[in-house]
């Protein structure tokens, strides 16, 4: 998997992970992949819901040491 | 599917502010067109000085620590974020007249209007929320 950009949103509370993800997504091109690192548990359902509303795909997701990683491919 | 989210902010406490701006910024970040109608105490939330001194509900002051610990952004930060994301702020003209407030008392880029200005925006919005 080629990661185009990484967003470190660890420690941030709602709604900042979503706002920052949106801004980071605006800077990459279609089909490129954004890696998002978050610790906000709300993001577990928020990021997939946000991606769905924008037609983006979550191609992978994992959790390591309390950090959640999302890999979002831009629509 | 509607691409608009319409919000009425009618209360002026800190908790009210978070409810309003969290939903507004999340919606705007999801590419929704968002407008907030600030009326009565809700005007506090975009008042240049007022928004820095929003009160917690009586007896709930101990949550201040929780806000800090959870690294929740401040209200002025959320206001700036909302503006940056294109959220439209409509301040209620009638309330401003009653309270003796002018456009200069509020953050930049607000629109001043009456109920119909908001209703016109909200007529095809989904959801419309009131806080």
UniProtKB/TrEMBL annotation, chain A:
Residues 7-31 form the UPF0033 domain. The keyword Transferase applies. Keywords: Transferase. PROSITE patterns: UPF0033. InterPro entries: TusA-like, TusA-like_sf. It comes from the Bacteria. Gene3D superfamilies: TusA-like domain. Transmembrane segments: none annotated. Pfam families: TusA. The keyword Transferase applies. CDD domains: SirA_YedF_YeeD. GO terms for molecular function: transferase activity. Belongs to the sulfur carrier protein TusA family. This is Sulfurtransferase TusA family protein. It comes from Oceanobacillus halophilus.
UniProtKB/TrEMBL annotation, chain B:
InterPro entries: DsrE2-like, DsrEFH-like. Coiled coil: none annotated. Gene3D superfamilies: DsrEFH-like (3.40.1260.10). It comes from the Bacteria. This is Sulfur reduction protein DsrE. SUPFAM superfamilies: DsrEFH-like. It comes from Oceanobacillus halophilus.
